[in-house]
Design goal:
heterodimer, A: 157 residues, 6 helices, B: 162 residues, mainly alpha, Ferritin, 77% helix
């Protein structure tokens, strides 16, 4: 029997709400990374350009997996970023800053999203939802990797 | 650019022209990104007997749109302008509206079809602006975009027949 049938309604809703929020945050950080990939200018341009590209490609496949997980519960995934908007969501930037600030900004976003993923992870454990839990472990790994790359860059500065 | 005053007239025109070209490209970028997000959402949320074909057709289409957005943004950077890269800017610049509420499979197809037609038209105006200023690089990119949007529109239209 699938785990989701064992979940009580409260756990079910909590996980879905958190996944929707995570989807929004992932979408935001994806677009910001892409934005910075386009607008970064510096002597080490090439390195960062490629790194940002690797990251946003990974993020795009992540929000696909998250949305598909939401669909697996039989619920429609949020259909526009307006629905994604909430006061705690990651903030976007309209004017691309200098590279140093781009890195700091993305690092802060990565750290925020790691916290969100962790809370979904614990909700999934409580609800005995192994599939969501497994997806969250993968997301933590990916975000921690990106965050550590940014941290290394800032230390070397 | 604050250096315009010291420039010869031709160069000054060039800067003004690039602004117009960059503005046009920014509109195409915003619409491409909005349609990308819409197509991706429809890929997730499509239901009914057409699920499998539409789910995979939408996937192919959103992948193409993501790639196109990258090329358009790089063109904007190549002519020396910052590329818009936030939902807030995209919403202001795009004449394609985001998806809202629950949409039936065939309505999704119709909405996407309209989106592709809209971008095709916007790109067409950018071709004219770019050619007016001899910016063949931008004109060429826009022509490629029109070709792809027209092709996608034709495929979507075929779902609506019979």
């Amino acid at each position: 029997m699938n785990n989701r049938f064992k979940m009580n309604k409260r756990d079910h809703k909590a996980i879905l709400d958190s996944l929707a929020r995570l989807l929004a945050d992932t979408e935001n950080i994806y677009l910001k990374t892409k934005n910075y990939h386009w607008n970064a200018s510096m002597p080490t341009f090439h390195t960062f350009n490629e790194m940002f590209e690797n990251q946003y490609v990974e993020l795009a496949s992540a929000f696909d997996l998250i949305a598909e997980r939401i669909r697996a519960f039989g619920i429609a995934a949020p259909v526009s970023h307006i629905q994604f908007n909430n006061p705690d969501a990651l903030k976007e930037t309209s004017n691309p800053p200098k590279v140093q600030e781009m890195i700091q900004d993305l690092l802060a976003d990565q750290e925020t999203i790691i916290k969100t993923v962790r809370s979904v992870f614990y909700e999934a454990i409580n609800a005995e939802d192994e599939i969501t839990k497994d997806l969250m472990v993968q997301r933590i790994q990916a975000h921690e990797k990106s965050a550590s790359i940014f941290r290394d860059y800032l230390i070397n500065k | 650019m604050n250096t315009t005053t010291q420039m010869p007239v031709n160069d000054r025109n060039k800067v003004a022209n690039q602004n117009r070209v960059a503005d046009g490209l920014s509109r195409v970028l915003a619409e491409t990104n909005t349609l990308y997000l819409k197509t991706h959402n429809f890929h997730w949320n499509v239901t009914g007997p057409m699920f499998q074909p539409l789910h995979s057709v939408f996937e192919e289409q959103y992948s193409q749109l993501a790639e196109a957005a990258d090329e358009i943004a790089e063109r904007i950077r190549a002519i020396g302008h910052p590329a818009p890269g936030s939902f807030a800017e995209f919403q202001t610049l795009s004449s394609i509206k985001e998806a809202s509420g629950k949409t039936k499979a065939l309505e999704m197809v119709k909405e996407l079809l309209e989106g592709h037609e809209t971008i095709s038209q916007t790109a067409n105006t950018v071709v004219a602006i770019a050619q007016e200023y001899g910016d063949e690089g931008t004109a060429d990119l826009m022509i490629q975009r029109i070709q792809e949007h027209d092709k996608t529109a034709w495929m979507l239209r075929s779902f609506l027949e019979n």
